[in-house]
Each structure stands twice: as structure tokens, then as C-alpha cells.
Amino acid sequence: MTKEEQFLMGFRDLYNKMVRLNKDKMEDSLKGYKASEVHCIEYIEKNLDSNVTILAEFFYMTRGAISRLTQKLIKKGLIESYQKSDNKKEIYFRLTEQGKEIYKIHEDLHKEFQERDKAVFEQVTEEQFDSMLSFLETYNSHLDAEMKKQDIGIKS
After folding, report:
1. CA nearest 31: which of 134, 119, 109, 146?
2. Strand, helix or coil at 147?
3. Whole-structure pTM value
4. pLDDT at 155
5. Which letter does DSSP use for residue 107 in this model?
């Protein structure tokens, strides 16, 4: 097995273990909410003036799928839509108080998981972090270029 194959298998294994370790606690704490809903709430909270187009691009989903998702979140009372006074055409989203509660639960869980894994990261040197971050940036850029080349993106 090549180092590249070892890395990709190791990365997949690592990701799957993180998901499995976090799954039960996430599901118990966020009962009644799908992962896509929680991640949409997270994005809206962290990114001012989120709209259907921006959400579709970020999540690699169609605008139609995002419209359905945001309508569910509105019906559940987690987000609300608004328009800016200078742009009555575009519809944006923000969290309601109930949405902010779900966001906080999700963030607290991430902090808990980060605390659980802190011992590992405390052993990583600055140079190792720089190297890993540089690799992630390079690989991300490569995948972005491949997606663009293959015209993989959002289609209405």
C-alpha cells in the first residue's frame, strides 16, 4: 500500500470514528433535528445575510433543496426570513431564539468533543500543525479545481 493510500484510508477511518463517537450524543441532544438542519442553522448563525444561493453553494445542494430545507426550519420556528431595506428582491435568513438554542447545544457538543480530544492536539507541534494545514489547503484547492473542471456545482 502506498503512503497516499495509507493516508486516505487513515483519514477515512479517523473521520468514521469521530462520527461514530459523536453520533449518539448528538442524536440524544438534538432529537427531532436532522444533521442537515443543524448544519444549516450553524451556517446561518456564523454567516450574516445567508440566502438560498449562498447556502446552496456552501452545502453543494440545489437551490430547490435549500428552499425546502429552509422552509422546514421556518415551520419549526428555528429561522426566519427577512429582507434588507435597500434590496427587496433578495430573501435572507437569521435564527430565531429557538434556533439560537439549537445552535448553542450543537456548539457546546463540539466544545465537549474538542475537550475530549485535547490531549492529542497538545502533543502536536506548531510545525506539524502548519504542515497539516498547508496540506489541507493544497488538497482543498485541488478538489475545488477538479470540481470546477467537471462542472460539479449547483444547478437549479
Report:
1. 109
2. helix
3. 0.86
4. 54
5. H
